[in-house]
Predict the 3D structure of the following.
Amino acid sequence: MGVARFALCKISSSLLPRMHRPSALRQMSVAADLKNSTIFRSQGLIGGQWVAAHDGKTLQVNNPSTGEIIADVPFMGRRETNDAISSAYEALNSWSKLTATERSKCLRKWYDLIMSHKEELGQLITLEQGKPLKEALGEVSYGASFIEFFAEEAKRVYGDIIPATLADRRLFVLKQPVGVVGAITPWNFPLAMITRKVGPALACGCTAVVKPSELTPLTALAAAELALQAGIPPGVLNVVMGNAPDIGDALLASPQVRKITFTGSTAVGKKLMAGAAGTVKRISLELGGNAPCIVFDDADLDVAVKGVLAAKFRNSGQTCVCANRVIVHEGIYEKFAEAFSKAVQNLQVGDGFTEGVVQGPLINEAAVQKVESFLQDALSKGAKVILGGKRHSLGMTFYEPTIVTDVKTDMLLAREEVFGPVAPLLRFITEEEAIRIANDTNAGLAAYIFTSNVQRTWRVSEALEYGLVGVNEGIISTEVAPFGGVKQSGLGREGSKYGIDEYLELKYVCLGDMNRK
Ligand code: SIN
């Protein structure tokens, strides 16, 4: 099956981190089993062929939980990206000319295959990303749901007939695929951020070049293998990885790429937006957040604790919609802090394959150092740690679930996305103040409020400058609702009936001289 350079590291068990010896050994056996699976791939996909980098260079994919090398994958760059773009461009004509039903059937098959390989895909996600297996399996269902949804939506791309202003004319609006799409995706959702982009793109007739994160390419390659097995023709979906700046530049420079879709940091998103200007490409950006979670004094405390817990600690705090600032009414601040601490201290930290673990490692050392520097900044300005506050005794990149009180709006923890398991608690007195604090940021992706007052629900939801608002609920993402931010959190929407518009061009056709005999 053309599996290249699988490199399950042969480290002696005595070299494994002390606390992790059993889990590392278990993970090595999971990795070995996955190696023999029909979905395991460790080469790039260009024009339906599994290929190495032109110069044979590779990069290692590591397990963040153990440090083990899972596999080597090709370190690709401009040349391979240009090959992938050419393949996608060649495939565009035939793929876009299939009927919507034909494309829909391929996508549905892809969905079925993803679901029938749910266990292996979940294991792959846990292995290369670190999230607990249960959460990884949840991501497989979530990721697959975008393929299923857009397989159905493919058949509902309707145009329009416009009442003409002249009797001998007929006016039509056609919806057509934008063309070749460059999709650049992050490590925190190795599957779902790909399917949320590629699902609608392929459904309406676009072809794609995907660049997954170099930290988590194996899930992307497995998903691409399943796309081939589903009968999605060669060239329709291509995957390259390696030198991220070079791949990004090649996608931006090519006039054949008509759209860039990106999930990742705001800084990179801004560069892509500037770079897309050269060839005037369409662009969708899903960038960083700084989600406020407002807990009003009329909230049901249990609902609020459960909701904030979910919104903060999903994926160990490594999602763009994770609660970044918990803004609590003065009157219930202490009570909430106490109840929240009790819940957080029960979160079991460990490797994702261990039963009961709900907090995996952070993705890498840089992520831990970021958390540490934010915390240091807060402590130096008067904040207090009431739970956690340091690296976990498990070592590697495990970090203790942490709660910080007396956080002020000028602290880094309140100004920027921490992307880790740290919950900073801020105080407010009036509703206006809560809204002002919540909106005092350049980000505008997700916000959460906890209240039992219906009027307040509407008032505050309308006042929040965010693309998504959760009310008494900490997990609100779904394939059927539009996902995306305002302000510097991005452009465009993903998922839902709106998500497919990002991959469609409107064409106005004027049919003249209707009365000619
Ligand atoms: C993200 O973190 O970018 C995605 C989160 C989600 O889809 O809920």
